[in-house]
């Protein structure tokens, strides 16, 4: 028995390390306790934040000054939070296998394909983002001449590239956490579909098992939300302000640089927001499938269990929150985007007045 238990533990550890190797540099470093990797990424973020403050001396207009201040705050915030995560790495290591440990349900081939597809999309996003940022930095520094340091622009572009890559690595870390929660609710949905497709009579134990899986998925989400709350709050505040400011300025004073910066900021906001609100979408998407279970039994007690399950789902309060004040849902983001776009479109008229 002891040997079998050790074998299972070793297999679980191997699966965890195998997943970590595919889930991004920060996840891998936290799960394998690679302190040096975390320090390098933290140093890159902090260095880029310091460089942005230093470059305020060379920036001639208000727009570039504001943008550099926002980028600097974002980079320093990411560096601080990464150190905080390293200190709490044990809690993160427990969370990343929380659902599997409690349910004994591993990833199916379909879910592995889902993860690989989203990771490939993020790789394309990373490549596009890097190229766009380097192009913006190059154009921004093209008009400056440095008599004493003729190679300074190239040094700056190199430092900016390091900062951009470190930020994208941090972004990947957050998105991987979102993807893990996605797979938890997808596994619950798969179990519900199995019950719907089964020809056997639906029992009260079947419903309770699926309800338990759903509760564990909700519990996993709440634990991740507690751990990532500072990241979610600070990132959304900084990114919303930065995206809105870039959009407004691209409308008021359109140019090649401002339009490209606006595209970069909006792309960052969209990819993070999508993975965040998709958690809430998945937690409510199974409502119709659960409702269909009522047709598979005439038992009053079984139907009561199904109704309890439906009541929990229709609360629609599962997902990441903003400082525990409200859940970030598709409706919330749509309302925010509408308000921002209205203000942005009205800005040229206000400026003329």
UniProtKB/TrEMBL annotation:
The keyword Membrane applies. It comes from Tetranychus urticae. It comes from the Eukaryota. This is Gustatory receptor. The chain crosses the membrane at residues 25-47, 67-87, 120-142, 154-175, 232-252, 258-279. Keywords: Membrane, Transmembrane, Transmembrane helix.
